[in-house]
Amino acid sequence: MNVGVLFSGGKDSMLALLRAREEHKIACLITLVSLNKESFMFHTPNIDVTTLQAEALKLPLVRVVTKGEKEHELKDLKAALEQAKRKYKLQGIVTGAVRSTYQATRIQQICHELNLWCFSPLWLLDQIELLNEVLKRKMKVIISGVFAEPLDKSYLGKQIDKALIAKLAKAAATHKINPAGEGGEIETTVLDMQLFKKPIVVKKSSTVYENFAGTFTIHGAGAK
Amino acid sequence: MKLVISTCADPLSESEFVAPIVKLVGECVVRKCNKVKPEDIAQADSIIITGTALADFVYLKQKWDWLKTFKKPVLGICAGMQVLALAHGGKLVNQERIGVHPVTVIEPNPFCEGDFSAYFLHTKGVEGLDVLATSDNKPVMVKVKGKEQYGCLFHPEVLNEEIIKRFVA
Question: What ipTM was predicted for this assembly?
Answer without folding.
Answer: 0.95
